[in-house]
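Continuing the batch. This is chain 6 of the set; chains 1 through 5 are on the previous pages. Same settings as before, nothing changed between runs. Recording input and output for traceability.
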Amino acid sequence: TRVRSSAASDVYKDSGKTALVIKKVCNASNEGRVTLDGVDWAARSDDGADIEEGEMVTVKRVDGAKLIVAR
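Output for chain 6:
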């Protein structure tokens, strides 16, 4: 799995895409990973709810090196 590189254009091009949760997303413990287009990203949920490994999510926005996602 590739780890993403920083690029300003990523903020816009990834919004609305579908990603796969590969490590449970838990805002309370500041953990979670998703894969998007073959790239591993840190992730947090848009509404603060936990999202289980294996679920598909929608990218809402990019926050630095993290994707903000929702079911």
